[in-house]
């Protein structure tokens, strides 16, 4: 069952508490339900800020039977595309983390807190993987959907995810569950345990828990019937002369420049492909569009459609806390947590996209081809090859995270104070190999000749240790230590924090008590990244990185932050409260900034409450944006000099001179609990966020298009080959963008306690995004309604909604979740019809996914029980829409987008929860 989230601003009357019964169902028979305290601010409990707030209780988390916390957060439509094991794709820094992204503005603009405190980042971007907290220790998750920097600190531009741990836990609780897709892959295993007790006559309490999660990988889209259609995106180089659109989405899109065994791509021998054991055959070309084609040979071989649909993950996370009452008013608390995750899988295969030059005297060249070269007076041929025989380059990402917290809380009359210190460390290791390719060594090894003295096949260069390789025919190339190896990158991030807070109700006016909170925090973040020598190699064309994949460069940097804040709320008249906050933040690199918030709540009638806030919010540049020295990845751009799409290296560079982003946020809404419809609550909230000085890069496709269109500024980021074609592109982060979004959140809850002998409850959460734009020197890009990653740029659907219908009767429960993604477009910059930026199909239909669940509780005694449960995701087994991006890297190498649509298909979960 999925309990009803509720927003700050609701009157917590007996009727509204009744609506939370499903959330409170977590309390076992004979045990009182823990109080749920919702504030959405730093103020004392009971004072509710005017900022919209959604809360998921512990039972909401359990009833979803999630393998990770990210699945729970995805129930809230205000979250945009979220990283998950099914969206990692070909990510040069590895996948598998769950980083919340509110409003589609990026995970770096969503602040993740644990018990109101920052957590050591689990990535160089400053993001926190929400898997780090054991699920059974979570009391609730508070999601502040609006600017909250003044109350919570920098980075809360689009909102805050605050994971609040249980205050006490008695006995032992556990969950054992498994899952598997209908196709027999993506298997899941989860074991969660939590226990707690008191000691010293109740003056102390201890609590501990851990999660073990193992998620099996899922192969490429070829493991699904929809993937076998080879639906791809084609850039039409002959537009408009051939009368076809500028871009074409089509099935049976194959490569015109590569085969697994090698393909001659130019000259009089074009079309000769290399088969097994030195044989050749004539490659059948379909309708060719530069580097791609429709039809012909190459079925299931399109290298731009072969990312993994699911990343394998194994993780263990544990947390232990202890509290001890030194006096009736002073409490000492400590908290220790640690976790380890191993993300495996594979990236793309080594590829030669029609650029591998072979000389006529190559020792492995089939004699028949050599004879044809002699007959045609050719000294060289150029081939394209996808090295399936080497396999997808394996990746292994290990994350180890540790954190320790110690502090004191005290109650002094009308005041409550707390002070704490914490230290955390994240160690991130990423290996690409051992079948990664050293580019220079590979070219040496490919250029093989027969030694006239010994008769042995050797490398023409006679480079020390060089082992000649045979690239002709699928299966001819083998891993060897000269050509292949492992790219390694290690990043160690540490965070030290000291914080103190004071909150209370110092006085009252005629209208009621005045609440005040003040505090200060000092923080130091430090990162040290190291990499292998080949990743740091400078190539002949000036690019950096000797591997075909990986190539992270060393980085080091420190950020020091000191913040002070104050927040107050005061009643002005009956039913009218004003709320305000201000924060001063000093960054060691970019100086001092101020954030503020002003808001009000007004309840003119019982059950009807209005709320509004206006705030200035900030996000400081993270360590990656400041100090990254040139991590690189492969991407596709259209090169008009060559007349086709080419894969080039895109180098990302940090900038220590970046300034903080600044955002202006407006929220306004109302909640309604009519007396004439008992147990019905409804809310509506409008939001408007405008960000200036946004940190961004233009992206390689945009830089290439702008440069060849005559923009000299864009050309400064491009390094060219002697013939004028693109060698590589460097993307430097700059405060060059603006971002804006606005929309409306809806929430509707209803329950009927007397329905067929049981209790029926219904909930609807929906978000209508009205605007999502990015403005750079390239112009304004409207991302609203774009559900593809065209040009490596994502958007958000206009409509998303989640509906829940739950029925409880005695120990039995059945539920149904419906997730809706509205009708949208492939790309907002394309249109159907003719002319520039035309595409044959730009519309994407609406999708509805149904996920039923059921459970049955067996009471073993007053305090012991076992609950059996099961659920089915995508019970109708709906295939995703065909929206290929046509680009290499990340989630792009697929015929669809796993951030919005299900790529797995029907998936079964089953398990048991127990309380002892």
Description:
The protein has 916 residues and is mainly beta. The chain has one domain: TonB-dependent receptor, beta-barrel domain (Maltoporin, Chain A, Beta Barrel), CATH 2.40.170.20. Helices cover 7% and strands 49% of the residues. It has a 22-stranded antiparallel β-barrel. A 5-stranded mixed β-sheet has the order 1-4-5-2-3. Strand 13 and strand 14 form a beta hairpin. The longest helix has 9 residues. The two termini are 22 Å apart.
Secondary-structure map with pairings?
Layout: H1 14-19, H2 21-24, E1 53-57, H3 58-63, H4 69-73, E2 110-114, E3 117-118, E4 138-144, H5 149-152, E5 159-165, E6 171-181, E7 188-199, E8 204-215, E9 232-235, E10 247-250, E11 253-255, E12 263-264, E13 272-274, E14 280-282, E15 285-289, E16 292-296, E17 313-327, E18 330-343, E19 351-359, H6 367-375, E20 380-386, E21 395-412, E22 415-437, H7 439-446, E23 448-450, E24 457-459, E25 484-509, E26 512-531, E27 555-573, E28 576-587, E29 591-605, E30 608-619, H8 623-627, E31 631-639, E32 644-653, E33 661-672, E34 680-696, H9 700-708, H10 712-715, E35 718-720, E36 726-732, E37 734-755, E38 758-776, E39 779-782, E40 799-809, E41 812-821, E42 824-825, E43 831-832, E44 838-839, E45 843-844, E46 847-859, E47 865-873, E48 907-915
Parallel strand pairs: 2-5, 32-36, 43-44
Antiparallel strand pairs: 1-4, 2-3, 4-5, 6-7, 6-48, 7-8, 8-17, 9-10, 11-16, 12-20, 13-14, 15-16, 17-18, 18-21, 19-20, 21-22, 22-25, 23-24, 25-26, 26-27, 27-28, 28-29, 29-30, 30-33, 31-32, 33-34, 34-37, 35-36, 37-38, 38-39, 38-40, 40-41, 41-46, 42-45, 46-47, 47-48
